[in-house]
Amino acid sequence: MRLVFADHEPHLKPNPRRDHMSGVPELSYSTLDRHGGRVLAPGQVVRTAGQSAPVGTIYRYDRLLVDESVINDAETREKLENAISPTGLWLESQAASSIVAGQGSYRVPVVSAHGDQSAVDAWSLLQRLRTDTSEDSLSEDLLEKVRLEHLMICSKGTPGVSGGEPPLGDPRAFSLGRIPVDMVNPMPVRSRLDGRLRVAILDTGVPTKHPAFDVSDRTEGEDSFVVVDHAFQAKLGEHSDSPAIPLDDPWEGPVHEPTLIGEVASHFGHGTFMTGLLRQMSPDVQVYSLRVVHNDGLAYEHEVIAALHHVADQVEAVRNGDREAFGVDVVVLAMGYVDENPHDEPGGWIGDAVQRLARLGIPVVAAAGNQSSDRPFYPAAFAAYPQTENAAPILSVGALNPNRHIAMFSNEGPWVSCYATGAGLVSTFPCEAKGSRMPDRRAKSTILNRHRESHDPDDFSSGFAVWSGTSFAAPLAAAFLVNAMSEAEIGAVDGAAQASARAHEALKRLKKQLA
Question: Domain count of the chain?
């Protein structure tokens, strides 16, 4: 396992000649439809006169992210509704709900049409609002509080391919696909500790049973390797506003893609694989697993924001003496999106959530994306933004091949902080995953009551797999960091300043060791 730091401080470098669709993952029509998604292609969308053309992204066409202050203030809300009304659309306020109360919670109204539902398009609506010159036009301040909701995608596997691996000879086949393997080496022994460092992984969750680790709910107070949060998941499910299956449980199917073929879902086991890497590299940590990613690899921006603020709320509660709260020391993210702003100046609130964690002294480690692009991938690219004094680091992580060269699928650019091994890794995978692909050859054994087979490509009953992606480079980088944090020569960590100092000292030590 290797970790290599960039020889410069992360920064954003404008690239006016960049391909406008660079970094936009290719998703099937069925996957987009499942989540109410649409691709913003600059030459095919409404454009505000006098402003630079947008660049490509993926968004939910019938949803808007609206600041809670707009929804809660009757006068401001009425202004927004009056501005929208002439378009034939309206906000279905009864669907607006806050997942996390207090700071950082946002309402997600549904944009509906009086007539033809094909007229519903959040991007077109925003352009109409920005060019409106009537007496009901909105101020710039108010317009800044109404934005697209991006569909975020996990950074695993083969770039540009949804729902499976590319055919042989396809130039996009840059990495080892997900295949079952067996693990020969035993998992490292886990020491008994009173105060473990905790790593939050926001992803697809982990199975309730796996031979490599035990799982408990946070209310049980167990010293298990993985802790889940049924209460948070229930709230996420309660406020679900999507036709896709709600994420109302820490672990749930579907194992298979929603087709008649029965293939294992493209991102099923994604969070389990990430968790297993930490189990191998940092056995003495505890993983706090929050499920915010669907098994087709997509996440909703507002749900990720809610989960980030939920983690931050827990950190603050612990420091305020709440013994029932569940604080963490590092956050790992493997999903992201490219922003439609051509100058790479994303709006919205996911950056606020990441920065809030950093200000609390909690480092955020995020995957740089798998699109073979230099286009900033958020939230990883927030590593290139200036940090407030005493804030913990934000790390954006690209992927290395086992030979230490950058993986062909990995994004890279001046906004990437470091690179860790992300190709050809072996880690844990749900044992229940078994798809419809069959061995090339099969025959009855003449001696044992078994079959003779070629390698079954999607029978994961061993509980382990080989996989590739910057998604998996991120937890490896986090493991290096958290191991160094456990050795940092810092006194009692009881506040943001001490927590941030510990993270920076650990990072400094790592850079010196790996130079």
Answer: 1
**Phi, psi of 217, deg, nearest 5:** -85, 150
Exposed/middle/buried for residue 189 (C-beta within 10 Å: 0-12, 13-18, 19+): exposed
Task: Evaluate whether residue 240 is within a structural domain.
Answer: no
103: containing domain: 29-153
Q: Is residue 321 part of a domain?
A: no
Instruction: Give domain status of residue 512, yes or no.
Output: no
Question: How do strand 364-367 and strand 394-400 relate by DSSP bridges?
Answer: parallel
Give the Cα separation of 512 and 395 in Å (integer): 17
Residue by residue, pLDDT tens for the chain (515 residues) are: 799 999 889 998 877 667 888 899 989 999 999 999 999 998 888 777 767 788 999 999 988 888 888 888 889 988 998 898 888 888 775 444 567 665 444 445 566 665 555 578 999 999 989 888 888 899 999 999 899 999 999 976 543 333 344 444 443 455 568 999 999 999 999 998 888 999 999 999 999 999 999 999 999 999 999 999 999 999 999 888 788 899 999 998 778 888 888 889 999 999 999 999 999 999 999 999 999 999 999 999 999 999 999 999 999 999 999 999 999 999 999 999 999 998 888 877 899 999 999 999 999 999 999 999 999 999 999 999 998 889 999 999 999 999 999 999 999 999 999 999 999 999 999 999 998 888 877 787 778 888 787 888 899 999 999 999 999 999 999 999 999 999 886 666 789 999 999 999 999 999 999 88
Asked whether residue 424 is assigned to any structural domain, the reply reads: no
